[in-house]
Amino acid sequence: MYSSLVEGHMRELYASLSEKDRRRYAAVEAEKLGHGGVKYIADLFGCHEDTIRRGQQDVERLPDDEAAGRVRVKGGDEVLLALQSSVWSPPWKRSSSSIRPDRR
User: Fold this and answer.
1) What global pTM score does this model have?
2) 75 phi and psi, to 5 degrees?
């Protein structure tokens, strides 16, 4: 449907996107092609047809998307940072009282 040059550019763009944006881009491209577009785009990008269908659902909800502009779950980094700080900290961030003497 597209020339090999255009397909190459499409693959490069697809590879540069986040997972969510890949789904949405694939969905928009499939929609432009109409009948058979989902299979063609899935084969072109090497993704599953269900991924494109999920992208179509994402695109339909865009005006109401709570996560617009976000790539990760809200607050996810805060939990990870709390876990990291309570379990381990790099030596240069430790206070001298928390460093144990070497017992040999």
Assistant:
1) 0.62
2) 85, -5
- Tell me the CB-side half-sphere exposure of residue 63, using CA atoms within 13 A: 1
In contact, 41 and 26? CB cutoff 8 Å: yes
**Torsion angle of the four alpha carbons 90, 94, 100, 104, in this order, in degrees rounded to the nearest 10:** 40
Residue 84 makes CB contacts below 8 A (sequence gap 6+) with none
Check whether 33 has a pLDDT greater than 80: yes
Q: Phi-psi region for residue 36, left (φ > 0), alpha (ψ -120 to 50) or beta?
A: left
Q: What is the pLDDT of residues 1-14, one digit of tens each?
A: 899 999 999 999 99
